[in-house]
Amino acid sequence: MELKLVVGSRESELARWQAQWVIATLKRAYPELKCELVTLKTKGDKILDVALARIGDKGLFTKELELALEEGRIDIAVHSMKDVPTVLPPSLTIAAIGRREDPRDVLVSRRGHTLSSLPAKARLGTSSLRRKAQLWHWRPDLELVDLRGNVPTRLAKMEKEGLDGVILAAAGLKRLRMSHWVSEELPYDICLPAVGQGAIGVEARKDDGRVLEIIKPLNHLPSFACVQAERAFLRELEGGCQVPIAALGRAEGNCLILEGMVASLDGQELLRDLETGSVSQPEEAGKRLAAKLLKRGAGAILEGVRKSHGGRQR
Fold first, then answer.
1. 83 part of the active site
2. In the CATH hierarchy, which top-level class contains the domain 105-185?
3. pLDDT in tens, 253-264
4. What pairs with residue 83 in β-bridges?
5. Disulfide: which of 14, 83, 101, 197 matches 193 by Cβ 3.0-4.6 Å?
6. CATH number of the domain located at residue range(s) 220-308 in this protein
């Protein structure tokens, strides 16, 4: 019997890299495996002139792939975990998460600046409310400009629009062999990453035992546990791309350390806290950390964010 998988992915260069990484990893485990790559354009790929927070929809980069999974047109969907909603269709599951790449955010500056050395009122490109809130908390003078598109597109826009820099994910630049663009790796005490940032996830049908067995070699347990903890934190706070929430899990042996952040859109209110737990029960740590921040007032902050419908509030 032929061993074959139909792999679904978005069309971007980075998404294709991720899908090819999954295929290469599986072929090392199963040399006889045949894989077919199917690429789809998602809603988030089609709408590039509007900030994600203003589109007001979940699953912007996953819905089309999930529909293809449910209809049996593909066997697995490869995602950037930061794009995956915390609530999945009932028939689907995140079956594996690969070893996580560097989850940090980075500054790419045209003149090699760091955040500290940027001139007053420097113009930086990012559409992420999470990044904006944390950067404004640290440097309220910055002018943060909405910027979307794939990595090469954002870098080109930086030059074309004369921005002082852009904020990007380290993982994407590393995977595309573009790390030489990085001016500064942003420390976590300034900018915690998005939930799941740097992690590649594989979604499959819950009842497809054949596929679930095949993709087991992809799963990196510490990365899986950390991302599950972060997603549980986000789920408890009912967050998404429309709210400034960040989290980072780190595994040290069987111990899981989870840090989380909730902020107002302008960064003036910002709460951070830490929770520890077990790699074997990662979601419990996420739930406890969310409860801790809600007790400190995160609920009121998030309610204010949702009422404002995006945009900087002064």
1. yes
2. alpha beta
3. 999 999 999 999
4. none
5. 197
6. 3.30.160.40
Cβ atoms 66, 30 nearer than 8 A: no
pLDDT digits (tens, 9 = 90+) for 195-249: 999 999 999 999 999 999 999 999 999 999 999 999 999 999 986 557 899 999 9
Q: Are 84 and 197 in contact (CB under 8 A)?
A: no
Secondary structure E strands in the chain: 4-10, 34-40, 76-80, 92-97, 105-109, 123-125, 143-145, 165-169, 184-185, 200-205, 245-252, 255-263, 270-278
* Residue that is written with structure tokens 């499959």 in the block: 204
Q: Which fold has domain 1-98+199-219?
A: D-Maltodextrin-Binding Protein; domain 2 (3.40.190)
Side chain identity, residue 247: A
Interhelix angle for 282-295 vs 298-308, to 10°? 80
**Token couple for 113:** 């600046």
Q: What is the dihedral of CA 253, 247, 199, 249, to 10 degrees?
A: 0
Strand order in the sheet with 270-278: 245-252, 255-263, 270-278
Q: Which of 45, 50, 48, 49 is nearest to 65 (CA)?
A: 45
List the catalytic residue out of 75, 83, 105, 266.
83
